[in-house]
């Protein structure tokens, strides 16, 4: 096993864990809140589960110590490892939005549609989401609370737009807001903010409302699933909203011109690439490719097209 640590302390008894989706480092972050009732946010993929287990062991969290596992939403890069982690940590309660709960108990439908999207790449990217005993799953609605012990709480806030089963989570002790993918993707190497607008749920107005909700919570720090902590909260959320508008405008133009998906993607990439340091000339192309695995321009354009078709 790789002996390089995947754990980074972030202060406030919060530890970032690089969950190493498909073996990549630095694209999927899980977080352990090391409170009286330890809580894991974003377990990552099924393939991530051994990585997470090793990180928790390093942090002194044994099989019976983990109190809660929370997912911001049930996409496989966030929740694919829930079934594995639930088996490794038999005391842990699994917390998820009500629109995602049944898919964690019975993942067959979710896995079938993921297989249609990803084909054979599904196995290397994510692996198989295994079922979790329904009795261990707690569904939250518009808001919900995870007891972290010692008076500390993690409050969930429904934040659809990227996905209809998405929640953000605010730590009462640190003011950390776990944003999942609702505010897009933050690329720490270049400080870029890029949208994450996959089909079939993406909706611009809903996403902007969720970003507004996040702003109104007044977080001290944003913890991105992709990737890591950001303290420049207001500017980052503002940038996130702006990027969404730019991409939706570009896709709308492509759609008005009657372009097919491939040509629309080419046009949108060309029109937006100068906005991001990561796609500028001279930047490590491997770095850009790594993030493209996670959120491809094609998936973003397809998601926005789908939303425009729906609203037409
Ligand atoms: Zn994601």
TrEMBL record:
Example of a GO MF term: hydrolase activity
Stretches assigned to the Metallo-beta-lactamase domain: 27-226
Keyword Hydrolase: yes
Native organism: Actinomadura livida
Signal sequence annotation: none
Highest taxon in the source lineage: Bacteria
Name of the protein in its database record: Glyoxylase-like metal-dependent hydrolase (Beta-lactamase superfamily II)
SMART domains: Lactamase_B
Family annotation (InterPro entries): Metallo-B-lactamas, NDM-1-like, RibonucZ/Hydroxyglut_hydro, ST1585_MBL-fold
This protein's UniProt keywords: Hydrolase
SUPFAM superfamilies per UniProt: Metallo-hydrolase/oxidoreductase (SSF56281)
Organismal lineage: Bacteria, Bacillati, Actinomycetota, Actinomycetes, Streptosporangiales
């Amino acid at each position: 096993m790789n002996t390089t640590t995947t754990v980074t302390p972030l202060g406030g008894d919060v530890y970032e864990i690089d969950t190493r989706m498909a073996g990549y480092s630095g694209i999927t972050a899980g977080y352990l809140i090391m409170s009286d009732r330890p809580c894991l946010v974003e377990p990552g993929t099924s393939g991530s589960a051994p990585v997470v287990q090793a990180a928790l062991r390093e942090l002194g969290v044994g099989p019976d110590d983990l109190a809660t596992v929370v997912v911001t939403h049930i996409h496989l890069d966030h929740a694919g490892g829930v079934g594995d982690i639930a088996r490794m940590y038999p005391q842990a309660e699994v917390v998820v939005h009500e629109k995602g709960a049944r898919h964690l108990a019975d993942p067959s439908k979710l896995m079938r549609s993921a297989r249609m999207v990803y084909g054979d790449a599904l196995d290397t990217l994510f692996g198989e989401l295994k079922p979790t005993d329904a009795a261990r799953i707690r569904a939250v609605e518009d808001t919900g609370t995870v007891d972290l012990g010692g008076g500390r709480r993690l409050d969930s806030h429904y934040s659809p737009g990227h996905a209809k089963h998405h929640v953000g989570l605010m730590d009462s002790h640190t003011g950390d807001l776990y944003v999942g993918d609702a505010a897009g993707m933050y690329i720490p190497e270049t400080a870029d903010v890029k949208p994450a607008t996959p089909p079939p749920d993406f909706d611009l107005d809903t996403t902007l409302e969720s970003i507004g909700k996040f702003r109104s919570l007044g977080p001290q720090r944003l913890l991105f699933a992709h990737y890591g902590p950001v303290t420049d909260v207001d500017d980052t959320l503002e940038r996130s909203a702006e990027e969404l508008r730019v991409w939706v405008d570009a896709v709308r133009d492509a759609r008005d011109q009657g372009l097919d998906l491939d040509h629309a993607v080419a046009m949108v990439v060309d029109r937006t690439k100068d906005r991001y340091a990561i796609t500028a000339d001279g930047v490590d192309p491997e770095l850009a490719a790594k993030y493209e695995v996670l959120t491809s321009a094609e998936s973003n354009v397809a998601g926005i097209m789908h939303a425009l078709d729906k609203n037409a």
